[in-house]
Amino acid sequence: MKRMNVLIVGSGIAGLTLANLLEQQNIDVTICEKSEICEEHCYTIGIWPFGSRVLKGIDLYEKFEHISIPIYRFRIKSESNTTFGSFNMRSILKGHDPLRMVKKCDLLKMLVHNLKTTKILRPMQVVSMRQTVKKVNVKFSNSTEDAYDLVVGCDGIQSQVREMTFEETKFNYTNWSGWGWGVNKDYDITDTITEYWAKGKFIAYFPSKEGTFFFACLPDKDIPADPSEHNAEFFRKHFTQLNPMLDQMLGEFELAQNITHYKLLDINQRRWHKGRVALLGDSCVSILPISNKGASTAMESASILADELSRVGSFDVEYALNLYYKRHHKRLKSIQDDARKSSGWMFISGKFKSMNRHLRHALNSGRYFFKNIIELINNSI
């Protein structure tokens, strides 16, 4: 049987995980990446057990442990600095690997360095694609052309592959924005995530391998149009009343590294594939970053697509893509809906709704709070 030839557009978590999995199947893989460097924004992300088990499948989990930090405590606080949720993650994830925090750039480098035969075109973009019955003919930004049995768009929420292949995408806007940044101090929170669910504002901080990572959110209406005003003074004005320690933390915002600012939105693409072109990760179903499930979901999606491709030849690619969609679309929709529901609780602005939120979560156990995560881990795919 002729070896399958796959082009992956985008070298994020979804694309690099898929490349590693396809290499195991002796499939010829090429990655096309528009950026010259591995990852511009080195923010910290969480990897849950349903994502880390994929790393075990490509023999990378031990290396992953060395570049990440386990989380054993999850705290939620109100605007009065009162803890209304404190959860023992060891107990909640008993029998499974811990939730681990890792810098995205470190995870990407690990995935890249594990590749052996994959060809990486960088910096390079896809200019056009033309499908035939047997191939996808691709023209690149350097004017070269090549033909592939399958093209997989792993190029994010603003996917170029999706734009070339499908109808206009409908975005779901929360009307909130978020910032992420890291500071090289640990503040004695080496195994704990702390989130403040305040009225009309949200901020979280958690450990990374080299200090502390912050994630702050505000309604778009409260954010200055001039990015230069997104500074330490701005964040201290909105957040230091939550906890005096935040005054010190946010006062060091100017020392922050790799500050990322983005609109909080997601998409759910109705179709994931057309002919021999497929979408993977944020390009088809994106998860709001506030839930910290996007990276694990992308890795799991890559494993399902690779699994279906392992049982077909190049003539049956469309059959494999159909099964990939049927196996995973309901589960991804559930994860996305859960993230939207969680963000709805986090982004409450009214005083009485905020009080009701705190009371409701104070009365429920960690098992209830994390029940959807537990179901994801325990249910087969």
Summarize it:
With 381 residues, the protein is an alpha/beta fold. Helices cover 35% and strands 28% of the residues.
Core attributes:
381 residues, alpha/beta, seven-stranded mixed beta sheet
What does this structure look like?
The structure is a single chain. This protein is of the alpha/beta class and 381 residues long. The protein starts with a strand and ends with a helix. Strand 18 (273-274) and strand 19 form a beta hairpin. Helix content is 35%, strand content 28%. Strands 6-5-14-15-16-13-17 form a 7-stranded mixed β-sheet. A 6-stranded mixed β-sheet has the order 8-2-1-12-19-18. Strands 3-7-4 form a 3-stranded antiparallel β-sheet. It has helices at residues 13-24, 49-57, 61-67, 89-92, 104-113, 160-165, 232-239, 244-251, 294-309, 317-346, 351-362, 366-369, 371-378; strands at 5-9, 28-32, 44-47, 68-70, 73-77, 83-88, 100-103, 119-121, 126-131, 136-140, 145-148, 150-153, 171-183, 192-198, 201-208, 211-219, 257-267, 273-274, 277-279. The chain has 13 helices and 19 strands. The mean pLDDT is 88. Helix 1 packs parallel to helix 5, helix 2 packs across helix 9 (294-309) and helix 9 runs antiparallel to helix 10 (317-346).
Question: What is the strand and helix layout of this fold?
Answer:
Blueprint: E1 5-9, H1 13-24, E2 28-32, E3 44-47, H2 49-57, H3 61-67, E4 68-70, E5 73-77, E6 83-88, H4 89-92, E7 100-103, H5 104-113, E8 119-121, E9 126-131, E10 136-140, E11 145-148, E12 150-153, H6 160-165, E13 171-183, E14 192-198, E15 201-208, E16 211-219, H7 232-239, H8 244-251, E17 257-267, E18 273-274, E19 277-279, H9 294-309, H10 317-346, H11 351-362, H12 366-369, H13 371-378
Parallel strand pairs: 1-2, 1-12, 2-8, 5-14, 12-19
Antiparallel strand pairs: 3-7, 4-7, 5-6, 9-10, 10-11, 13-16, 13-17, 14-15, 15-16, 18-19
Helix pairs in contact: 1-5, 1-9, 2-9, 7-8, 9-10
